[in-house]
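Incident review: delayed structure delivery

Summary: a single-chain prediction request sat in the queue longer than the usual turnaround. Root cause was a stuck worker, restarted by the on-call engineer. No data loss occurred. The affected request and its eventual output are reproduced below so the record is complete for anyone auditing the incident later.

Affected input:
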Amino acid sequence: WTEEETAISVTYTPWLRELNLNDIYLAYLTGYKKIDGLQTVGFGLRFFSLGEISFTDNDGVSTGSGKPREFELSGAYARKLSDKLSAGLTAKYVYSNLASGQMAGGLDISSANAFAADFSLTYRSKGKTGGYKSEFAMGLALTNIGSKVSYTNQAVKDFLPANFGLGSALKLELDEFNTVEFGLDINKLMVPTPVASLLSDGTNNPVYDNENGNGTGDGIADFRQKSLFSGVFGSFSDAQGGFSEELKEFSYSLGGEYWYDKQFAVRAGYYYENAIKGDRQFLTLGIGLKYNVFGIDLSYLVPTSNQRNPLDNTLRFGLIFDFASYQTQNAVDE
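Output delivered after worker restart:
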């Protein structure tokens, strides 16, 4: 639950800069407005440009070029349920155009559209920790729960990357000018694991389409044909390796932040993902500056594993405009 009444934030993230690609980026515009002491509304617009791509067929013959792009438009509503508990709901529309007008496997490729929702609960409690004023927060978020998508006219579609997130944070006011905060986030994708059947014909070949029980079916992997809720809730118990593999599907983020006089911040964080579930592991470093109505955030990602990341050694930045501070400053000037 934020302190400012109204704010707008703009974030720009270069993508694959290590490959010297300058036209691939992620841009994010968000804002919110407090209606009263209990309610807040917000919006978000996310745009992902994949640059200009030359398409070819299986023989390497050019079939034209295009500019793949995706965007997401969202609206959010949050409400305080009590002094310590609040809830939020976000509705969003997703559009993805990766290769419209091209063909794959004899099928025409078109753009994909989807609708999804996010739900969150946040608990906050103020008190004292180690003799310092403190604020403890814990949150739960279920995101990208929505319709499945397809880039062709096939009846079977793919799941959106639904996600389960659980996080906590502790902020300590060391004195009038110095504040530190520590946070831990745990995330897990809520999508079906590509489970394969092992045939009993002595070959032990993995088969993903085994509707008939003998290694045959309708030509579509069984896990892709699950319903939305079957895929989401079943994702906590469908790993072939059992409970131990389910635990490996969780990723962890640990971070810390220091503020001086609410004007200068230093941040650091670490992200860990199991080696057999993506192996993304990296360190993030960042600083933040706030002056009057403007704020700027800079961050840098440093990989710590052999798994390449689109943001390896990339500098990202964000701008924040605080309308409440702007109105207060104008009132003082008048």
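Verification: The chain has a mean pLDDT of 86.
Action items: add queue-age alerting; document worker restart procedure.
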